[in-house]
Amino acid sequence: MIQLQDIEKVYRTKTIETVALNRVNLLVERGEFVSIMGPSGCGKSTLLNIMGLLDEPTSGYVAIDGKPVKTHSDRQLAKLRNEKIGFVFQSYHLIHDLSVVDNVELPLLYRPVSAGERRKSALEALEKVGLSTRTKHFPSQLSGGQRQRVAIARALAGNPEIILADEPTGNLDSVMGNEIMDILLRLNQEEGTTIVMVTHDEHMALKTNRLIRFFDGQQVADSMVIEAQI
Amino acid sequence: MLKNYIKIAWAVLKRRKFFTFISLFGISFTLMVLMVVTSLFDHAFGPQMPERQTERLLFVNMMREQGEQGYSSSGPPSYYFLDRYVKKLQTPEKVSINSVFTTVNSYVNNQKLTLDLKHTDRAFWEILDFEFLEGRAFTQQEVANASHVAVINQNTRQKYFGDAPAIGQRIEVNQVKYTVVGVVKDVPVLRLNSYSDVWVPITLRRNEFLNDRLRGSFFAIIQARKPGDLPKIKEEYARMMTQVEIKNPKDVSTLYSFPDTILETFARTTLGGRGENSNVGYFYTLLALAAFLFMLLPTINLVNINISRIMERSSEIGVRKAFGASSKVIIGQFVVENVFLTLIGGLLGLAFSLGVMHLINNSGVIAYADLGLNVRVFAWGLLLCLVFGLISGVYPAYKMSRLHAVEALRGGSK
């Protein structure tokens, strides 16, 4: 589903060169729930951004569904992100000036979909995350857990095949974190959505199918969770 | 999508009240000034009552006498020159001779009334399109007989007779009595060739007809058969000027006089166009430059405000990009928002313009001014709004749309 081959990402300033990712090779299969762990600054988020086509690698090959994206234009990349990928961010990144339901409609705004259909899909997504009673609220009127659920609903609204979640429970307490994790697990198990999640939380990572560990921009372990637990 | 953009634009406007105030004030104030200036320009130079057929009219307002030693003097031409030379032109359909208006006194119920008086011929009423509220213009016979008849404007009727009809009534102006034969709608003072309070037959000044000097205190209005004849009239006029007899060749070696359109007359007077070139092109360039500079400052200001405003929303740009918005879509969104903001500013500007025009009309700063938002002025206003919105919105939107999604999500640090 997502293939990364020999990915390198180097940040250069006038005086310093920082290697964020060093020769990363990774294949995420359809329906997998992959968690990525590692210390801060080891390149996890950079990797997720490259997988989500939000960032370009300095060198290497990225393919979605077997098709390389290197030569894609800005418009083609936008279309691919819109149709295939949903994002969940640690700090939610909701648009404060829009209501919950308007936030959730966002991915559908860039598709040829009628306003009625858009609203219907958004309400369905909110139903899935248990927030159908908060549709008219604004993000500032919600708790952290509720905001993250709105963010998940937004990621779901476009019915993407892949969800990329960057520390989705990082800003939440354990109860709310577990609630969010349950929603993600349900999506993966019941709807077959492929999920790649960056996390610092070993407990959360152990709930997924596959755990990849990173250190200093390099992949140091890649194992199925059952094996990792053994 | 448009509804979503407008919804968010409205929310941003409400959230950032100070920024909204600064932006709207800048836009509406600038537009107000431009609209009022445009309206004044239209009022002075556009086709307005009674000079409606401006595309067929030329005006002779000046005669310049140039001496060999650099001496030069100029002023309105004389009746003699206009009657002997200009009236005899073959190309025009009609030529009217009329005097420069003079300020005279009158007394009504022991109260002094200052009025402007103009002497005109019959052709004046045929060429110009006055709106008669009562009665008629004076006839050819009345002009030939130097009858003491007068056409007065609405304001003068009000002062003399209140709301009562004026036809057949007598007025005394400069100790001369006239019978009122017509009442016309007030003409703004900006229309120098047709404006007055009281119009009387030109033959009442026939003692001046015999004076054979070339300069005096009269104007001519030339009406062409069709707009395309104006250049031909100018050519014939130029040929005629070479044949004008100079009575005092010791003092005057060359004569300059040109039939100009209203705008050419103004450009020649203000910018000193001496030759055939009336400087109207230069005048337009100056106007365009002034308007450009006037708009440039608020536009730059708006661009800056917009950049910081959009910068604050870099996270939103990042999210929109992450969920499928291309750079073009982002530009579109911010341009729509900005045009929306500018249109609100434009509407406010229109409202302010109406207020200012109402004040000017009622203040008497410009006598009988009747400034208003006609369709042309309104269209100009809308166009200016759009230009404003696009100029101040496109650049910041373009700049921000180039932001990488990851950078935008981090807060647009790059």
From TrEMBL, chain A:
Name the SMART domains for this protein. Answer: AAA (SM00382)
Q: Which positions fall inside the ABC transporter domain?
A: 2-230
Q: Which SUPFAM superfamilies match?
A: P-loop containing nucleoside triphosphate hydrolases
Entries under Pfam families matching the protein: ABC_tran
Q: Carries keyword Translocase?
A: yes
Q: Which GO terms describe its molecular function?
A: ATP binding; ATP hydrolysis activity; transmembrane transporter activity
Q: Which UniProt keywords apply?
A: ATP-binding, Nucleotide-binding, Translocase, Transport
Look up the domain of life of the source. Answer: Bacteria
Taken from the UniProt entry, a GO cellular component term is:
membrane protein complex
Q: What is the similarity comment for this entry?
A: Belongs to the ABC transporter superfamily. Macrolide exporter (TC 3.A.1.122) family.
Q: What is this protein called?
A: ABC transporter ATP-binding protein
Q: Which organism is it from?
A: Rufibacter glacialis
Automatic annotation (TrEMBL), chain B:
Q: Which UniProt keywords apply?
A: Cell membrane, Membrane, Transmembrane, Transmembrane helix
Keyword Acetylation listed: no
The keyword Transmembrane helix is annotated on this UniProt entry:
yes
Gene Ontology molecular function, alphabetical: transmembrane transporter activity
What is the membrane topology listed in the Swiss-Prot or TrEMBL record? Answer: Multi-pass membrane protein
Look up the record and report any one GO term of the cellular component aspect: plasma membrane
Provide the MacB-like periplasmic core domain boundaries. Answer: 20-236
Using the record's annotation, list all stretches that form the ABC3 transporter permease C-terminal domain: 289-403
Stored InterPro entries: ABC3_permease_C, MacB_PCD, Macrolide_Exporter_MacB
Q: Which residues cross the membrane?
A: 21-41, 282-303, 330-357, 377-398
Where is the protein localized? Cell membrane
In terms of Pfam families, this protein maps to: FtsX (PF02687), MacB_PCD (PF12704)
What this protein is called in its record is: ABC transporter permease
